[in-house]
Amino acid sequence: MVHVYNCHPFASQHIVPTDQEPGLVCCGGDALFVVSAAGCKVEAYRMQGEDCPLICRFSTMGTVHRILYSQIGDYLVTIEEKNGSTYLRAYTNWRYQASERTRVGVRLLGHFLRVPSLCGAPKEQMEIIEMPLSEPPQCMACCALTGDLLVGCTRSLVVFGLKRQELGERLVVLDFEMLVVLHIHNWSPSDVALCAGYVALQTELEVLVVKLERMEKRHPPPEDCTPIPSPEPQSPHESDDFFMFPKHLELLGAESKDCGVSVTLEGTGAELGSSMALTYVLYRRFAPDFFRGCSSVHSAHSLHTLYTLSMLTCSLPLCAGNCEGGREPVCVFCFFSLPGAGYMYSLHNPVQLLSTYQYPEKTHEAALCDQFLYVITRNALQCFSVRCSAVAARAGDPYIDTTMKACPPATMEVCALRIQLFIGLRSLCHDGNHIVLITAVDSESKVETGSTTRRTICRKTSRSKQVCESGYGWNLYVITTVPTLQLYTEMVEYSRRYEQTLSHNSLHLLSEAHLLVRSSLLSLRGGEEGDRAQLQNAFRESCAQLGDCFSRLDRRDCHLALPYYKMSGLSVTEVIQRNVARSGDSTSVTDYGKGFLFFLKHSLYEETMEDLSEETANTVLDIFSQAEPAQLPHVVTSPFMVKADPACVLEHLEQLEVSGAPAVTLTLCKSAQALRLGNMQQYCQQMEQHSEMLQVFGFIEEPKLLFQGRGSSVTPTLFAQHLQHTQVGLLVAAMVALHENSKVKLEEADLFFQELCKDCVDRQSPYLLVDFWEALLVASSQDSIIQELLFRLASVYINRITRRDCTGITALKTAEDLINSCFHYGQPYPWVSILTHLSHCSVAPDNHQEDLHKLQSLLCGPTLDISSVLPLLEQLPDTDGAGVSVYVLCATRLGQLESSLERLLEHCPEAVIPYAHHQLHSHMLTLWWQKLFPELCKRARVPSEKGSVLLTALKETVKVVAMELSPLEFLELLPDDGSAHFFLPHLLECSLRHSQSHLTTHIMESC
Amino acid sequence: CTGMSRVYVMADKSTLLKVILLGDGGVGKSSLMNRYVSNKFDTHLFHTIGVEFLNKELEVDGRRVTLQIWDTAGQERFRSLRTPFYRGSDCCLLTFSVDDSQSFLNLNLWRKEFVYYADVKEPESFPFVILGNKIDVSGRQVAKEEAQRWCCENGGHPYFETSAKDATNIVEAFEEVARRVIASDDKQEPLLSTHTVELRRKSRSDPSCC
């Protein structure tokens, strides 16, 4: 179904004062070029203004068969015939031809003289550049971005690059350079189009689009690049015995390579051409329409228009090269049209059919621009919408189609905005805000049109008069289109008429209007800041209207209200006002649309927005009480609702409670509100309703009860502050639970506690934060954070032991608790306690002892990476038992037993033997005699206050060594100066034990 | 923003006549053209570089025609710039200066160059017109009879003695050009009598444009 809206895109029409009957017309750059019907004279008119003044008039060098204007380079290109030969020529600097008596320069392409001595001062004269071709040219096209020229011949296509050279302020010398030749087998294009490297060509019923790309020279050319003298491609048109009816066929992207049309590239030696590659993009074939009673395939049912169009975006970085304004085209489109239907394809990834235009009657010609498609039938100029801006908006913008941004879909149905009647339309072209039409009434059409014509005359009296007055039966019109904003306003007003009855039509019109403004913004060039500001205002207004539409309509895509409202720049308060005002006259629940509620919820829960005023916040409460009461606990905890009246909130929550909603979160919400009111009695009453365990679940349900914001802007709530002083265990447990349920990140939790304890002495790692880390370490099963937590805790413990903290604050968990409940805290080795007890810090506060215990326990545990802790030890003195215990523990864990033994002998010989018993076994057993024994012997000789301790240790060591070694080995070990009576008993025991064991072995063997 | 449209009413007949001015550098080709088209004369005219043309509409024997007069650079170094545009000429004006005998002797070379590059199939019947310019200058080196003899021996071409400076014989010469072309077309008309639309078509067989 084609929507037809009776909008007014056409503002006014003027008649161009040509003397002779116009043959060909083309336009661009605000100029209209008319080739007289005799074909050898071109008249250029200015299209702005009422009277279309003549700019200049000049003769061509032959009879013009085709004419085309390129805005880039401001040149005209013609296919001309003279004395039976066909020529391709470009007319440059034509604006200098104001006087017909000026000489015109002519040269072949590439023959521009660059030597200043030859040229003298650059001449301000028109120059014609002739481009020799090996086949007669048939059709041509210019790239609107580069000014490059594509020429279609019978068996080949030639691409010419436009070269420009500035010669002073106003004068530019143009030249062309043949870039590449495309050979086509068995295919002769009737029309071609060129845009940003995309080459489109069509025959009567086929369209092929290929893309030319520059290649890195190092790569071998793809197979397409080399002409293969392969067997002729099988064409479905040809068969010896049968005539095959070609079927409809559409091949998109890579698969279009199999279309049967072979295109091969031939470089021309030009720098660019030698590194070009070709890819197939699109192929479409139509079956001849025999069923409409057209006797001939030709003209009656063949493609009549081929266009390529590019759309630019400002969001991309500037590109080098001669793209206009230095912007890379983001999207390229291809449009082609049969008399009955037109097809618009997007050529960017993926290649896809965007829109099909089903014309109400047979069309003659079409013209495409980035906002509209214009087509002419015999008696009407029709204006259709296009979807280019919907595609362009999506290209290169990662935020489109998210909760951030939205745009009407590119596949949305197109519509006819206007069908304007004219008599005897023959030809159509378009430039900027002008449409040029040639009408001609001949006797044949007068007879044929019959009643239609009569009706037209009745309605358009003034126009038909003009036709009569001109007297020739032909007219050349310039139609001015209305400014985008005017049409936009009309469409918006029009949509209001649909608003009450046909909401979906209203949405469609608003979407059309939105795309119109979008495309206008996209095609804005620099230096139009005033226009830009106006268009941006319209754009925001349009977003707001679409937001309204989606927020009210009961559609599956009602969530689009959110991105549209966001793009509109309206504050949440304004959006609420818009929607409340609309449903103000009624109190029905259904008046708040799903889209609006979605927007409201998302804004309250996920976004940054302004704090709602008390009045608005209370309105929001009313809205949710009516529409979705279950959301109330979440709504009231939103940070933007802080100004809501707590009494009012409590009232709403109590209503909800009465209706039997799930309890814990609700109760917590009520507690929070009671706290705000300062009603401690009610607060306590609410807090006693559920166990702490259940309350933790409540917090998981709604974390905003404890903190608000995300990332670096996490702030604890009043509720959390209160819990810190009253139920710190609950607070820590809740945060651990939130972390384990991925409701809060570790960094956020850190920030939360730091913020809570910002008045504490130790701002970096306050006790509450350490409590949290310890509790999290007990609970967590995420390996990645366990190492992080272990390191942090070790660091905190070491720091506190070093600084001998005595804040008097008791940690939530004792070392004993942690050892019992947490796998990562190990049971401290027995010798550690000797060190700790003997240390001089026995007067240290309890929490110092606790921290030392926790650190020792961590060092004895299985998980902590000891080497990571080493750098932290630097600050820790090794003069007391505590320090020594930590150093020795670390060294021991790292396998450095010898140095540990030395350190112990030095600082605390009492612990040496327990240490040796605990650590020196299996392969470390040898250290008893290799390290400990000699060390003890050495140290025992030196008289000291620890002499007796050392001697006792030596005795114990000798006892062990005697157990382990053979008598001979033991003997060798004894020092030369040792007193025999000290060692003798041990030697005796050793030999006895040894012979005993020998004896036993013998007995065993003899048995 | 390019627009293109197709012919729906084809021109039935082209009255555009391409006339090319050839001759040595400095013989006054540009001055002849300027005098004829603009009726102006400038003693200090620059050398022509490459090829330039001007259009002049006139009526000859009741027929309206447009003469497209092509002025070329006579100097040898500009040869490659001018020769590609000989093709499609309806008439060739060979020009020399009567005070420079070398320029007269070079007429043969110019004729040959034109016939070669214009790809003229029947040089004998091609309309040439010979102009002896600068008759206002004293110290004449080429006699009128000598020039007439050359014209006679080389196909019976019309000869005009002109002065661009004094505007002598200019209009007459160009009108003769127009007459010659029309006559030459009319002569060929019976050969192409079936192609009524293509009255002006020459009997050239090679339509290639390179």
UniProtKB/TrEMBL annotation, chain A:
<dbReference type="Pfam" id="PF14763">
    <property type="entry name" value="HPS3_C"/>
</dbReference>
<feature type="domain" description="BLOC-2 complex member HPS3 C-terminal">
    <location>
        <begin position="486"/>
        <end position="994"/>
    </location>
</feature>
<dbReference type="InterPro" id="IPR029437">
    <property type="entry name" value="HPS3_N"/>
</dbReference>
<dbReference type="Pfam" id="PF14761">
    <property type="entry name" value="HPS3_N"/>
</dbReference>
<dbReference type="InterPro" id="IPR029438">
    <property type="entry name" value="HPS3_C"/>
</dbReference>
<dbReference type="InterPro" id="IPR017216">
    <property type="entry name" value="HPS3"/>
</dbReference>
<dbReference type="GO" id="GO:0005737">
    <property type="term" value="C:cytoplasm"/>
</dbReference>
<protein>
    <recommendedName>
        <fullName>HPS3 biogenesis of lysosomal organelles complex 2 subunit 1</fullName>
    </recommendedName>
</protein>
<feature type="domain" description="BLOC-2 complex member HPS3 N-terminal">
    <location>
        <begin position="3"/>
        <end position="465"/>
    </location>
</feature>
<feature type="region of interest" description="Disordered">
    <location>
        <begin position="218"/>
        <end position="237"/>
    </location>
</feature>
TrEMBL record, chain B:
<dbReference type="InterPro" id="IPR027417">
    <property type="entry name" value="P-loop_NTPase"/>
</dbReference>
<dbReference type="InterPro" id="IPR005225">
    <property type="entry name" value="Small_GTP-bd"/>
</dbReference>
<dbReference type="GO" id="GO:0005886">
    <property type="term" value="C:plasma membrane"/>
</dbReference>
<dbReference type="GO" id="GO:0003925">
    <property type="term" value="F:G protein activity"/>
</dbReference>
<keyword id="KW-0653">Protein transport</keyword>
<keyword id="KW-0449">Lipoprotein</keyword>
<keyword id="KW-0636">Prenylation</keyword>
<dbReference type="Pfam" id="PF00071">
    <property type="entry name" value="Ras"/>
</dbReference>
<keyword id="KW-0378">Hydrolase</keyword>
<keyword id="KW-0968">Cytoplasmic vesicle</keyword>
<keyword id="KW-0472">Membrane</keyword>
<keyword id="KW-0597">Phosphoprotein</keyword>
<keyword id="KW-0342">GTP-binding</keyword>
<dbReference type="InterPro" id="IPR041824">
    <property type="entry name" value="Rab9"/>
</dbReference>
<comment type="similarity">
    <text>Belongs to the small GTPase superfamily. Rab family.</text>
</comment>
<keyword id="KW-1003">Cell membrane</keyword>
<dbReference type="GO" id="GO:0042147">
    <property type="term" value="P:retrograde transport, endosome to Golgi"/>
</dbReference>
<dbReference type="GO" id="GO:0032482">
    <property type="term" value="P:Rab protein signal transduction"/>
</dbReference>
<dbReference type="GO" id="GO:0005770">
    <property type="term" value="C:late endosome"/>
</dbReference>
<dbReference type="GO" id="GO:0005525">
    <property type="term" value="F:GTP binding"/>
</dbReference>
<dbReference type="GO" id="GO:0030670">
    <property type="term" value="C:phagocytic vesicle membrane"/>
</dbReference>
<dbReference type="InterPro" id="IPR001806">
    <property type="entry name" value="Small_GTPase"/>
</dbReference>
